[in-house]
Design goal:
The protein has about 110 residues and is mostly helical. The chain is built from three helices and no strands.
């Protein structure tokens, strides 16, 4: 019985710090993505636009899956639902750009 108490346990403050750090990583990733898209807004080559949209859609889908697994297994707690919503929203926008956006006619 005494040996069980000799193992260090995680305190809730350690878990909060880990969650806060994960949220900061998520935020910096979103910042980098936003900056990349801002500077790429003038890209006119259609194949490059479509390739970027496919890559972003796959990334959003992967992020949604990983976040859903973390949220449903109670690793991310209730904060994970917000990240899932963000990934879902971005994924839907990217899917629209890849599959449904009407092409502009050349004049």
């Amino acid at each position: 019985h005494r040996d069980l108490h000799s193992f260090p346990t995680r305190r809730s403050s350690d878990l909060y710090a880990a969650t806060k750090l994960a949220a900061q990583f998520f935020g910096t990733g979103m910042l980098a993505l936003g900056l990349l898209l801002w500077f790429a807004k003038e890209v006119t080559q259609e194949n490059l636009q479509k390739g970027m949209a496919i890559a972003l859609m796959v990334g959003a889908a992967a992020g949604l899956i990983i976040t859903a697994v973390g949220t449903t297994s109670n690793i991310l707690r209730s904060n994970g639902w917000i990240a899932m919503l963000v990934y879902l929203l971005f994924g839907l926008v990217y899917a629209y750009l890849v599959f449904m956006k009407p092409r502009a006619e050349a004049v």
